[in-house]
Description:
By secondary structure, the protein is mostly helical. The protein is 62% helix and 5% strand.
Amino acid sequence: MRPKAGEPRSGCAINAAVEVIGDRWSLLVLRDIMFGNRRHFRVLQEQSEEGIASNILADRLRRLVEEGLLTREDAGRGRRSTYSLTEAAIELVPVMAELGRWGAHHRPTTPALRVRAELLADGGPAMWEDFMTELRAEHLGMHAPSRSGPTATERLASAYTAALAADADH
């Protein structure tokens, strides 16, 4: 028996997740929105390290909205639409952290593009929770508790910028 439209091919939780985020581009689009705060089509396309084609990006954004991982705020004619993470996408932070840890350990990477994965791995679940709280404030409008010292977002951005600068010096 074939599944109904929008339903996974089986009741397996891993299959259900892979059907939504397991293609070549979906996690990278989510990564760029999550870690790079790239929330507009043109920015996502122009700043893609992997060089995503416009038709692929448009398709993935549409699918991620349909699957409930992104929302799209249409700003009106001639203005840029803004994409925001949903709670379901924000809850992928630990998955992204573990994928990054695995990739940094088992695959060839560059220091500048590996640094966020290392920082998330070193920070562990406490940092992931802080980052998810910050994403909820940014994307869902939820209140983030005030804290002293740099935020998880600031630490990730600072480490990335420093790694890019060090990479440029070599």
